[in-house]
């Protein structure tokens, strides 16, 4: 059986650049997959169903909750978001490393179910840069921007619960740092117990 893949959780406030960094990671590492969440939020311009998210109605989302289909789910900025459980479980079992790009409420739920997952908190280099990035994106109304900035403060207060903090000063550097983390995590002794035991068995 293939060795189980690594579950990698990436969170960070709006403007941290999670989407761009995840895209760069997928381009650099072919054994890396990104889980696509279900959301009740409406698609933004250019977003496609089944690519960025599975866009669902509130009742479809609640049906999935009742069926136990989510590995985790949360309400973020007034909309529901959830990680489909079956895709993640299947791909990990096949040996792929799977990224969840989710908010801290969801990450805390995953910490309980997958304590050995890798938890990475991505932050912009400064508060001013965070504001600049959200403004530049231009997809948010003034009111939504305010919501995101307030949420950013409470999200930053959760950062110490993660295993790693990665500053996204440049997408290239941030994605390289995350790849180093993934590579180092794979060398952790507890992830290699079967290999060590096999060598011991051969020797003894
Ligand atoms: P956006 O609406 O900007 O795409 O995402 C808003 C927030 O929801 C981001 O912080 C993103 O990480 C988070 N998010 C996206 N998918 C999920 C999910 O499946 N679960 C949770 N808990 N958060 C998610």
What does this structure look like?
The mean pLDDT is 95. The protein has helices spanning 18-28, 58-66, 85-93, 104-113, 127-137, 142-156, 171-186, 193-203; strands spanning 7-11, 32-34, 38-39, 54-55, 70-76, 79-84, 97-101, 118-123, 164-167. It has a domain at 7-35 and 97-203: Rossmann fold (3-Layer(aba) Sandwich), CATH 3.40.50.300. The protein is 45% helix and 20% strand. The longest helix is centred in the C-terminal third of the chain and has 16 residues, at 171-186. A 5-stranded parallel β-sheet has the order 2-7-1-8-9, with helices on both faces. The chain has a 4-stranded mixed β-sheet with strand order 4-3-6-5. It is an alpha/beta fold and 204 residues long. The relative contact order is 0.20. It has 8 helices and 9 strands. The chain binds guanosine-5'-monophosphate (5GP). Guanosine-5'-monophosphate is lined by residues 18, 37, 41, 72, 74, 76, 81-83, 101-103, 105-106.
């Amino acid at each position: 059986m293939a060795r189980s893949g690594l579950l990698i959780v990436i969170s960070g406030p709006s403007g941290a650049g999670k989407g761009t960094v995840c895209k760069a990671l997928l381009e650099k590492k072919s054994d890396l997959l990104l889980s696509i969440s279900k959301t009740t939020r409406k698609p933004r311009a250019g977003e496609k169903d089944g690519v960025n998210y599975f866009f669902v109605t509130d009742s479809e989302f609640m049906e999935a909750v009742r069926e136990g289909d989510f590995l985790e789910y949360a309400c973020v900025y007034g909309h529901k978001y959830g990680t489909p459980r079956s895709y993640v479980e299947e791909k990990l079992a096949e040996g792929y490393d799977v990224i969840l790009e989710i908010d801290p409420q969801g990450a805390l739920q995953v910490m309980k179910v997958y304590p050995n997952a890798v938890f990475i908190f991505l932050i912009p280099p400064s508060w001013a840069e965070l504001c600049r990035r959200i403004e530049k994106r231009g997809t948010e109304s003034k009111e939504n921007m305010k919501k995101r900035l307030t949420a950013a403060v409470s999200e930053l207060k959760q950062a110490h619960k993660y295993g790693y903090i990665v500053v996204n000063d440049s997408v290239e550097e941030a994605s390289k740092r995350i790849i180093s983390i993934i590579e180092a995590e794979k060398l952790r002794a507890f992830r290699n117990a079967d290999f060590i035991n096999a060598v011991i068995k051969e020797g003894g």
